[in-house]
Amino acid sequence: MNPLPPARFEELVADALDEVPPELMDLLDNVVVLVEDRNEEEPDLLGLYEGYALTERGWQYGGALPDRIMIYREAICDICETEDDVVEEVTITVVHEIAHHFGIDDDRLHELGWS
Asked: How far is Cα 115 from Cα 111, in angstroms, rounded to an integer?
């Protein structure tokens, strides 16, 4: 499908974040969620977590720039046929990247059904 307009896609990302249980959102620490069109190095990548997972942070972490969760609008729209598909894929991608913030790797996510 054609990429959704940036403003509409950002609404979907915000809606997906609203679906995350508040007790988990409260645990997010020093992380920002951003929308970009594509990852330049891996154009088919749907999302990316850049930073230090909570499980990797130690005493030296203080003063670090925020971790970043990137959600890639065009890549997600490329694999979807309808806006409903985009809504579902955005939710999956947001949950997937938040899980990385908590130190959950791809293998464990796949075991849990978040492929």
From this structure: 8
